[in-house]
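Problem 12. The chain below contains 311 residues. Write out its predicted structure in token notation.
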Amino acid sequence: MPPSTVLDAAATAAALPYPALADAIASLLHDDGVTVPPRLVQPLPGGGSLFVMPANDAAVAITKLITFVPDNPAHGRPAIQGDIVVFDVRTGTRRALLDGPTVTARRTAAVTLLAARHLARHREGPLLIVGAGVQGRAHLEALATGLGVRAVRIASRTAASADALVAHARALGLHAQRVDDANAALAACPLVVSCTSAQAVALHARPRADAFVAAVGAFTPRMVEWAPDVCQHLAATGTLVVDTRDADHEAGDLLQAGLDVAALPTLADVVRNTPAWQRARRPDGPVFFKSCGWAGWDLAAARCVLAGLAG
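Solution.
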């Protein structure tokens, strides 16, 4: 492999097939040599944020450097922009430069895929996706290719966005339809992904008792997708899981519901089947998986890309 490989968005996506990326994330969660310091979130004038997210294992070090500007899509610009730089730990040599938004979309959806592999009772769907942006498309593809979902319902603030994702789903061979009331659609869907802009509560109704819900839109304490009373109901009747301990101070949905996030099991607990997971799991009731993001997922993506380049 050349000393440094620069991958554009298309090449980055091709190097990160969802099932392989989910496997890489699971492998990372078993690796005690992974180090992920707290990410730096620098507020920017105008409401945007700059994220600096380093991570390393025994062989690879990465830094993710991205901006998040929530109102960019309304102006025809991506909400997330930036890059991920991958280094060799021993030599300090740059090994690769990856497209940051592509990695963010795909690793977030792959984390949901991994969680659903372990926690979802009804893998076939129907799947309800609330939010038809980049994350909605990534989750559609990830759960179709990695979980076997064949039916999907799409809800969005704009009918045009929902219709575009429905068309994409049908092109993938899925049975897909637009729904105009996401809350009403919850009753028919045992798989749910919420990936809205999380600037206000979008979901007020309760998921089914057998549902697996992945809430990915809110990744700061102020952001929210699910109503506090729904989160409290889920805590009382089901099982709550967070992606990492960073969610303790980032999981806006749960924090605004007044829940003790630090007491919840993480995805690593689930994958490792730890005592913390055994104590927390309930055989019945809905499962609510709160995903906030973590540089470890980007490290897993870098490991996946490097393995593919080397192979």
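Discussion. The two ends are 10 Å apart (CA to CA). Students who got a different answer should revisit the alignment rule from Section 12.3.
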